[in-house]
Prior knowledge:
By secondary structure, the protein is α/β, with parallel strands linked by helices. It folds into 2 domains: 2-190 and 368-383, Rossmann fold (3-Layer(aba) Sandwich), CATH 3.40.50.11720; 210-364, Rossmann fold. Helix content is 38%, strand content 18%. Strands 3-2-1-4-5-6-7 form a 7-stranded parallel beta sheet, sandwiched between helices. A 7-stranded parallel beta sheet has the order 10-11-9-8-12-13-15. It starts with a helix and ends with a helix.
Amino acid sequence: MNIIYYIFTLLLYFISLPFLIILSFKEKYKHSVPARFFLVNNPPFKEKLNHFHSCSLGETKALKPLIEKFDKVNLSIITNTGYEEAKKYKNANVRFLPFEIFIPFWLKPCKNLIVMEAELWLMLFYFAHKRCDKTILINARISDRSYTKYLKFKWFYKHIFKYIDIVFAQSQKDKDRLIQLGAKNVIVAGNIKGAVEYKVTKKYKKPKEKIIVAGSTHSGEEQIILDAFKNSSLKTHPSKLIIVPRHPERFEEVAKIIEIFAKKNNFSYGKIEEGFKNDIILVDKMGELINLYSIADIVILGGSFVDNVGGHNPLEVAYFKKPLISGKYIFNSYTLFDMVENSYIIDKSELNDILNKQLKNSFIKNKANIEMILRLIDDISNKK
């Protein structure tokens, strides 16, 4: 099967070459695509260390409690945002993980391969199983929406799990599903995202008005939130709305949406560089969301009022014990929301009403057993 899979990915690669070349010129992919699909400035790791792997920004952030316990690690990433976050770890050698056809030549021996969540790449695990001490899948989960899809390809995942020595699942439900797919040595360790500390990098002086932060919004959500903000009791409860789009490439688009709305409804509008003097504020730069959560009175978490995203990480909000409002489309984040007490999961039509209610503060109620995971990794390393 491994040879057939490799030939298939090789054919897929050559078929996709024109598209990949075009994609490499786009701002969002100008580093990741050349590195992953053409090995541009992306050499193999030189040192035999524990090799951590994650996909994007959230997963890379969640690795911090583990990575900071080691003097030095290797860390591979898939996305640009994940790469930028990974570079913040002073003890990590960082690379983009190459596409599957390059893994046989790129992957060097490591102590342990430690892969985050659902990054189930066959070539990665197959060659790491041969070249590294152990292969470990951490924070493993299978959402309700994904489970039926996984079952359709059970034969394939059962083959991959042959090369994974230990699996740390987020919950008992995840453990049962993983075993059904062929995983072995599955241990319930909780969700390590609950163990992350979110540090404020810039302290804002909170204005006297109620601060509503709409975080990680996607296309279609800004208008929903703006309309609810307009219809809430602003006269009796003076408020300011801060909108933080999820993707930088949408900053200009969202700016136009807010500007048109503000003029039509007699609101003042500005950007975060101007401070908090305006009624509606756009954050058009990265890295500010945590800083704003820390001073928020209410947080509306985006990616949940449209049905094609699946929600975002509520733990960032619950860490600061803020009232948390989310839409009902959280199919990729159910496990995270299970870790949060006092989250308000609503339909978009209810947003106006709930903004006028007295809401309870959210907080994280379950955290992963980081020490158990570290202890096992240490035990494995010490035995070799």
